[in-house]
Amino acid sequence: MSIFLELGQRPDEPGPPIHGPASYPVDVATRLRDDAAIIIARYPDSRSALLPLLHLAQAEDGCLTPAGIAFCAEQLGLTAAEVTAVATFYSMYRRTPTGDYLVGVCTNTLCAVMGGDAILENLQDHLGIGAGQSTPDGRITLEHVECNAACDYAPVVMVNWEFFDNQTPSSARELVDALRAGEPPTPSRSGSLCTFRETARTLAGLPHPDGADDAATVGAATLAGLRIARERGMGAPAAEGPARDSTSDATGHEQAEAAEAVKDEPAPGPSADVPARGQTEETDPTAMDTP
């Protein structure tokens, strides 16, 4: 008996993982190179700038496109395959066009218990779209997200990765209605709400679009554990000092020279002289006397 397996895209995947224009117009590429130069200059190894450059490309297109992938590869001396491998790993890099406001509803355990599932279902009905889809006016993209690390004020909705705490189905409807009306409300933990592309540019490490100092605030629920610990005199144990060895008295210059001399050598493997972690002379068979 033979079995036929058809390989390819899943039914819900709209074409290749990253699709769109293959290159940028000359004026756009020139402008992006100026921004990229600022970002790359911050890193001793240029390829370390890949993640912020991907945000820069996303700020241009609203998602990652072959043009953005090619641009990042060209700036960093990487192949398109290397850039794509990174871009498709992280969920913050979008593969399909994204609206002005990316609305993410957390339905992980605590948010679900507190009503996250109901909020997502309500927004899907209210907007007439499913999770992962955008409204026809291009204002909102709705998605289901994993834990937002904001359980202290569950259930939480995020808009362009800004928190809106203690949500209910009705407050979430009011939130998206305000976004569609061009009247973005103030997030729970910061001073302003940017569009998706403005947020991506900020994540790339470039100046905030309006120059505002958007410092986050911390609520009482977030600090509850710290407050209780202080009231009860609780604290972390003191760290033990590092064991001294023959190199502990070396100067910083000598230590740097020693590190440079062995930086390309492989780490030593277990041996009679260098036992595996947790292995002692009593358990190391190479250290035992043979009859």
Question: What does this 3D model show about the protein?
Answer:
- Among the domains are: 26-87, Orthogonal Bundle (Arc Repressor Mutant, subunit A); 101-203, Glutaredoxin (3-Layer(aba) Sandwich), CATH 3.40.30.
- It has 10 helices and 5 strands; from the N terminus they run H-H-H-H-E-H-H-E-E-E-E-H-H-H-H.
- The chain has helices at residues 26-40, 50-61, 66-76, 80-87, 109-113, 116-127, 169-180, 196-203, 224-231, 252-262, and strands at 101-106, 133-134, 140-145, 157-159, 162-164.
- Strands 2-3-1-4-5 form a 5-stranded mixed β-sheet.
- A hairpin with a 5-residue loop joins strand 2 (133-134) and strand 3.
- Helix 1 packs antiparallel against helix 2 and helix 2 (50-61) packs antiparallel against helix 8.
- The longest helix is centred in the N-terminal third of the chain and has 15 residues, at 26-40.
- It starts with 25 loop residues before the first helix and ends in a 29-residue tail after the last helix.
- Residues 278-291 have low confidence and may be disordered.
- Keywords: 2Fe-2S, Iron, Iron-sulfur, Metal-binding.
- Its cofactor is [2Fe-2S] cluster.
